Amino acid sequence: MSEPKTIVITGASDGIGAAAARRLHADGHRVVVVGRSPAKTAAVAKELGADHQVADFASFAEVRDLAAALDAAYPRIDVLANNAGGIFGDRAKTVDGFEKTLQVNHLAPFLLTTLLMDKLLASRAAVIQTSSSGARLFGDLRLDDLDHDAAFTPHKAYGTAKLENILFTRELHRRYHGQGLSAAAFHPGAVATAFAADSSSFFRLVYTNPLGRLALVSPEKGARDLVRLATTEPGVAWESGVYYERGKPARRVNPQAEDDDLARRLWDRSAELVAVKAG
């Protein structure tokens, strides 16, 4: 095995995040389990004998506290896996005033990553985003309406947020790969988890229906790409700045996902919204 890494996984109290944490811990890596639920997060960490942190990504204050705690606790962070996310129900705003899907899936991971950027660069880290083929199917990014005030549906908000994950990956690579940072996004597949359980989207019918769940893959299988990207060498096993499906660069993507100018503008707009320097 290669040298053990310090790997931070958000959304690791359940689903593919927990499955990836178990696999990476079994392989000898130092895993930091990050989740929203104090009880579930502590339970996974206790099972592994791993460190854990609790943060609700619907609160920027909690994300800032998380970044400060991670920065203080670990001399280096080799991998930051931005895995937390989800599809939600009726349109709702967070305490910070943003549509919840946008904040939890994109703005909060953006904030966490940028707050940790100095440490990530010093560690020559990999930043991994859990995206989705929903970016291609439903994503429609409009920088003048990131909150979907004009036309909201749960699946459109989710698909657009997953598109933002891909564009964030692309721009991370452009801005920081020359300084040693690598970035990738991936689609885990349709995974048998609690995904969409609290949503009014049609996804809920698939993920909660016993027959529909027969077509879903296990969390362990869904976590394979996260584990692979976290443990193998960028530039050798995978290419930085790329979005992966089924372990390979995606062959079909939303045309907006390949728009470099849009990626730059999304970064700048996101930095304005979370009040950090653009970098």
UniProtKB/TrEMBL annotation:
One Pfam short name: adh_short
Keywords: Oxidoreductase
InterPro entries in the record: NAD(P)-bd_dom_sf (IPR036291), SDR_fam (IPR002347)
Organism from which the protein derives: Amycolatopsis rhabdoformis
Presence of the UniProt keyword Lipid metabolism in the record: no
Name the UniProt record assigns to this protein: SDR family NAD(P)-dependent oxidoreductase
